[in-house]
Amino acid sequence: MMAVSKIFIVSPVHSIIVSQSYRNDTSATCIQDFVQKLKQVATLLPHFVSNGVHFYFIRRNDLYFVACSKTEMLPVMVIEILSRIYHICKDFCGVVSEASLQANILLVYELLQEIMNEGYMQLDVSSKIQPYIQSTAIIVHKEKSTVKDLTSRAFGIDQVTSQVSAANRPITQTARSSDGKGFYVDVVEKVVATIAADGAVSNMQVNGSIIVRNFLAESQQFKMVLNEDLVIAEPKAKGYGSNVQLDGCSFHECVNHEEFEAHRYLLFTPPVGEFTAMTYSSSGELCLTQPFTLRLFVAEREAGSRDVNVVLRLTSNYPPNIVASKVSVRVPVLSSIASISSKLSADNQASEFSKRESSIIWTLKNVPGKTECMADFRLNNQGSTMVTRRDLDPAILDFEISGYTCTGLAIRHLKARGKEKQKQQQQQQQQQQQFFVRCVTVSDSYLLRTF
Amino acid sequence: MENLSIDYILRELSSMKIATDVPRCRHCLSKVLQLCSSIVAQDLSPFLPPVVNLMAHSDLLIKKSACLILTKVSECKSELFLLAVNTLLKDIEDSNPTVRALSLHTLCAMKHATFVEHRYSSVVKLLSDPSAYVRRAAVMSVVTMYHDEKSVSKDAVVVNRLYELVRDDDPLVVVNCLTVLEEILESEGGVVLSRKMVGYLVKRLESFTTWGKAYVMKLLQKYKPKSEEEILDLMNVLDPFLDNNCATISLYTLQFFLLLIKDLPDFKDDVFLRCQKMFLGVFTCGNSELISCFLDYLQKEHKPDKNAIQKLFADHYKVVFCKQKEPGYLKIQKLKLLVELIEEENFTAILEELILYSSDRDPQVSICSIGCLKRLVLEWPGVSTQLLKAFHKLLRSERNHVVSNTLQVLVTFSPETLKNLSEVSTQLCLIAQKMSDAEAVVAVLYLIGQFELDNADSLDVIEEFINKFSELDVKVKTQLLMTSFALFCKQPAMFQPILAEVIDLCMHDDDCDLVYQAKCYFSVLHTDAQTAMKIFC
């Protein structure tokens, strides 16, 4: 039997937001069981058994999407189902947060009833569910901190940098609040890298995806042209060169990629809502340039003092016209460090010392390409042992660069193919404004080893 | 925050105006739903009268929500249910398919006798509904009915109708029929899969929804083809599903293939190779929970095929590397897989990775990683400089759990292996003074006995332990005795007074075993010290 018994959503403070029961084979108390477990066990596995009930959960935006079943199901399947449910909620509600789910509770229940019946999956595509949904979404904007708003107004600054990361900004909001139309393409690249102490790249890979969010009323075929010099090759067969070299890629089922081999373009008729048209990966240092080079130096302060100086030097390697919006460097230190003092190279930087986590955090805002930033930290050491480079391992770099892809992959051209040519020409200008193509490179795990 | 009290909402809902004010009514209903999910064991029966009234409302959303609330209060008893049944029965005749499906669903979800008596006729009627949406719901309602009265599965009308609907035009109806038949006929072995039926399902497989494909693929696993030719035919047709965007479909297809080729083991490697892209794809998708469950599945279900799976990852081991932000449980699973994948070529890279996580903030990750390092030391003779570096670093770590775990791993090595690690030993005396947990102290004392250390330092350490002897754990006392003895064997002149003192202390201890042991050492040394030293060293 492959039926889910209940699905419920638990808020960050462990209250139940929504609970939908599909079958009566598990008791109502099992929801409380899960919450208890959540409170007691520090690291809960995504699939576990408690009192004879199987629980499966995913954690998204601090919310837990939980399913339970009487008999064991393939955990991979339930996790995929929950991920799907999360995406459908995102398509319909715009943002998935406690507040937005509470506000849209009727909508969420409607969705849950259409997605499953008797614990078996029914419809799972937003566009197919849409006709059966009566509610209209209530858009909940992310809560802004009032203090920050006040200061910006007090100084007469109108433009405030958005608090939300570009990589996970809820696009649906703008689409829904304006005319309800729009077509968005995001190229998101996540960088995983480990840099050895001598600066050599010991591991570097990029996982990229082209995410399409489609809110156009009528379905049209789209043609998306990628870099013409794109090469797909085994990691070993790669060479130097400025062209885009990928290890491999896969496509969403609605994407026709017959012409991709020869002409590097994709044809697709997008379903309504969000989907990932293409995912790709690339690895090796030959074809990827590091967006940043981070160096770390340790200098002894003076004889007789146990304090040390740690100098961080961050060089940005991307083109000068591109600006990384958020960059932060986190360096772990010994717990014997009592305090730090810092000297930073520019005003847009800040440093923070967390005694609890024993780490220094250096944050930089708006770092333009081809520049160098420096930070000089003096660590006040109260322990008996000397601080050396190996005590600062590993430094973690976090960044977000919009308008830049690490692999160089770009969408050269995006065009809607209407059936009637005339109509297309008329609409072209209008539509051109409705397409939004963005690229962003974010760090997934970027480590600098210090010894 | 708006007032959420029951009385307030009840008053709102009962007022006459509410029926005409649709947005207000929707809002109130959503408050009721928030109530019933947020507070457990909340008695919602007071809401029954207004809710039953609203079930007949012309607004579809209000109707839907009212029905939902009704199913949530299905346990209580009320005369109002009769009214509700009437509304539902009227709605089953409605011209709107959504209303028909909704009312049937609600009717079946209610346990009360007034609802149950109308169930059967309504389900049978709607199984032949012109709308696919209603048929889907009707098919699923059979399961609900079955769980209340098992006799349905013997009912020829329903079962035959379901078998007929397997040939329905709507793919979802087909899948629903199959899953329902499989469940209600469980005692008889589920759906009968003839060769013809399998052929039909395979042909339609492409038209099913993602989950439909998964359910059907699972179902197909029951089928056993008669000839090798048929097996190959099936494999040819189903081959594309091995590499699907949905991991579930791929895994079920893989399971099916492995069953098919049970007697054709030569194909096994090829089948796994076809899954390679999907396997690697899971790791790059960024869904931690999925990766974790996937790894868990590989560990549990495919133990015999371990080698085949390792081959898939061999060239792509970097995909498995941990990411900083991943949850601890996933890091542990990944590290365990990585250590399986280790080979001559990737040794350095994987070792680096293990070293990196051996001092992780999460104690569990650190233990796992150190455990993996231990395996490497044992399985790869000739300790590399990197490993030495790793142990150096680990012992220097200021997190006590890291040091403690490292010591416990070091203890398990044979004396030969330890010789290679002798550089590490310089820090031991320092650590011995710092550590507090018994396990770690035992380990460090043992190691002090094993390594050729600077005697003055060891002497200091032992003396320090003697000074606080009464506070020590029994395990530590025992180890102290053994270490002193080992040191005495190496440097009799220097350690004799110390040993004497330790033996004396132990002989006056409360623990019988310890006293006995101390006496044993004493008598042995007393009888023939030279031979004793030869035996013990």
Write the layout of secondary structure elements.
The complex is a heterodimer of chains A (451) and B (537).
Chain A: E1 6-10, E2 16-21, H1 30-40, E3 47-50, E4 53-60, E5 63-69, H2 75-93, H3 98-103, H4 105-115, E6 116-117, E7 120-121, H5 126-129, H6 146-154, H7 171-177, E8 183-195, E9 201-214, E10 221-226, E11 231-232, E12 245-246, E13 248-251, E14 255-256, H8 260-263, E15 265-268, E16 273-283, E17 292-300, E18 308-316, E19 323-332, E20 337-344, E21 349-354, E22 359-368, E23 372-381, E24 395-402, E25 411-417, H9 421-432, E26 435-448
Parallel strand pairs in A: 8-26, 11-12
Antiparallel strand pairs in A: 1-2, 1-5, 3-4, 4-5, 6-7, 8-9, 9-16, 10-15, 10-25, 13-16, 14-15, 17-18, 18-23, 19-22, 19-24, 20-23, 21-22, 24-26
Chain B: H1 6-14, H2 22-38, H3 48-54, H4 60-72, H5 80-92, H6 97-109, H7 113-126, H8 132-148, H9 156-165, H10 171-184, H11 195-204, H12 210-220, H13 228-238, H14 247-260, H15 268-284, H16 288-301, H17 306-314, H18 328-341, H19 347-358, H20 363-379, H21 385-396, H22 400-411, H23 415-420, H24 428-434, H25 438-450, H26 455-467, H27 474-490, H28 492-507, H29 512-536
End-to-end separation of chain B in angstroms reads: 77 Å
Counting H and I runs of at least 4 residues, what is the number of helices of chain B?
A: 29
Determine the number of helices of chain A (DSSP H or I, runs of at least 4 residues). 9
The biggest beta sheet of chain B is recorded as:
none
Order of helices and strands of chain B: HHHHHHHHHHHHHHHHHHHHHHHHHHHHH
Q: What are the low-pLDDT stretches of chain A, counting only 5+ consecutive residues below 50?
A: 143-180
CATH superfamily of the domain at 82-192 in chain B: Leucine-rich Repeat Variant
Fraction in beta strands of chain B: under 5%
Mean pLDDT value of chain A: 80
**Count of β-strands of chain B:** 0
Helicity of chain B, as a percent range: over 70%
GO molecular function (chain B): clathrin binding
Protein name (chain B): AP complex subunit beta
Keywords (chain B): Membrane, Protein transport, Transport
Family (chain B): Belongs to the adaptor complexes large subunit family.
